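--- STAGE predict ---
source: upstream dedup step, 1 unique chain passed
mode: sequence only
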Amino acid sequence: MQRHKRRIATAVSAVTSSLLLSLSLSATPAHAATHDPVVFVHGLSSSSSSWDDWAGYFEADGYTSAELDAWSYSWSQSNATTAQQLATEIRNVLARTGATKVDIVTHSMGVLSSRYYLKNLGGTAYVDDFVSVAGTNHGTSTAGWCAWLYTSCAEMNTGSSFLTSLNSGDETPGSVSYASYWSNCDEALNPDSTALLSGATNVGVGCISHTDTNNDHGVYEQVRDFIS
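--- STAGE serialize ---
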């Protein structure tokens, strides 16, 4: 009788151990998140579709579609208004993915709203890496053609009060890692050096047109390596 009881106890113990092991394995996510979500911010007269090439490259390199957020906004409005909308977008991305921080990748005028978010709206707490691609960080004289039409463009014009405020003090606040990629023959940036950020990793990418900088695969590879 005692031997029979011991056999039963041994069998129960084995089944219990097997169940516990199975539960432990099933509790482990099959695909744990490995990347900060990337939030793409387009520029003047553009939309989320301007990031289609890079989104495809990121997916080919292991990012999931859930980790890539290209969104559109009304580019004619004040960059300060766009920054507030960006703050909401990032909160939504964090809630949806369960991540604690995002990486921001911007093009052209998109740097202005994104940097406003970082500097004035507490964004440094939610951003790991910030990337400026052909960014109008210190304004461009070419914005003169549309400054009288759009608030955003007037703010992007060299010497605007918006830019003076944005660039006062620390241009790269917080513990965020900053990088700026710029072309030496960018027809939309005058001067080309407007793209440079004090305190950032500033990288010249050679002679690439303004509209191609956020489509170019070579620039993409450098951005991917920086944020990873």
